[in-house]
Fold this sequence. Notes:
Blueprint: H1 4-31, H2 33-40, H3 58-71, H4 78-93
Helix pairs in contact: 1-4, 3-4
The chain binds heme C.
Heme C (HEC) is lined by residues 28, 31-32, 35-36, 39, 47-48, 53-55, 61, 64-65, 68-69, 72, 74, 84, 88.
Amino acid sequence: xxxxxxxxxxxxxxxxxxxxxxxxxxxxxxxxxxxxxxxxxxxxxxxxxxxxxxxxxxxxxxxxxxxxxxxxxxxxxxxxxxxxxxxxxxxxxxx
Length: 95
Ligand code: HEC
């Protein structure tokens, strides 16, 4: 029975990673997409797939997410920035 707690860690870690991936999408939806949609007059996601993207590598992508998150006063911490960066990378950038 002494080993039980460490065995329980594995599923807990999986849940943490899963919810981080989901967080990125939810955070993006709540703080980011509206302004981009207003800018583009439609689906704001097109800004991530346009021809001349600002974020043309992984470092630039995170820098831009940080920049926009600060500009929008989200108060996001490093984990939240990373979650949104990963979400955008998986959905659109593929770096
Ligand atoms: C108040 C408006 C506004 C909000 C809110 C906003 N953005 Fe932006 N975002 C911009 C503008 C404007 C640009 C494009 C700047 C340009 O074209 O020079 C941009 C560009 C970007 C890009 C780069 C797109 C490319 O060309 O590769 C990323 C990534 C991005 N935003 C992420 C985010 C994230 C993540 C959030 C949520 C925290 C967010 N933005 C919230 C205004 C906003």
